[in-house]
Amino acid sequence: MASVATLVQPSGELWKKIRVELNEDVNTRYQDLAAIKEWLRKQPHLPDEWDEDRMMTFLRGCSFSLEKCKRKLDMYFTMRTACPEFFTNRDIRRPELADLLARLQGPPMAGLTPNGRRVTIARGLDKNLDTNQLNDVFKIAMMMGDVRLKEEVEGVAGDIYILDASVVSPTHLAKLSPSVIKKFLICVQEAYPVKLKEVHVVNASPLVDKVVGIIKPFLKEKIKNRIFIHTDLNTLYEYVPKDVLPIEYGGTCGSLKEINDAWVKKLEDYTEWFKEQESIKANESLRPGKPTNYDELFGIDGSFRQLSID
Hints:
310 residues, alpha/beta, 6-stranded mixed sheet, 15 helices, 10% strand, phosphatidylinositol bisphosphate binding
């Protein structure tokens, strides 16, 4: 079987278009990179060295604002310490993860939309998915996120998420843990350089409005306005062209199962790398000022406190 492509990188005109979207100046980007490397080296509580490709991905996700990039990087390493449930034991062959992978799919698509965005599709295959496994679902999502930090070497103009709600049941709703969801959404919004452009919920039932209601308080204002709920796939095509969608969603880019299998294989290939990365995180005892108060950071009172960055 021919290997399925995973993250095709932009080139030609699309590459140029994405530079504009990312505020990326090819002549000055390496000066920006040098400034971030220098800043990182001076932070006693953060790793001294990190690879340039991932730093560049952070700069792109922050539109080359150095201050924003420092804040995101600090949060990224902070979260790696604060959330061991997401960032440790990241071996995809572990029984609890292998079990989940047989019951849900969530891969990024290989190609980009005409405006340079990456589409990720997530769906459950089993109505008996247990909400207690949410931490592991989020762990897998961020494992994919970390691979993308490394492999999106040319940068993309943003992300589109398509969430298939067909297996969501009232039982799930009753057991959803707002605190787990909040932690995950703080990670995604504050610690990863993701430019979230659109979230599309497909195969939506009336129940979905309730789920969105639980999640919305933890979303930034601009993201709240980017959630679209579809009861019919035809309205999805107004936003996402068929040539970046898999056949399961009326598209032409291969089957979601094959794309997902390719990602599972990729995550297996990264097993050693994930293990090596576990120690690369913030050391709160060395943070200037006072260590991060996790209760404040994840406070379920709904407020999110920014880290202060010197």
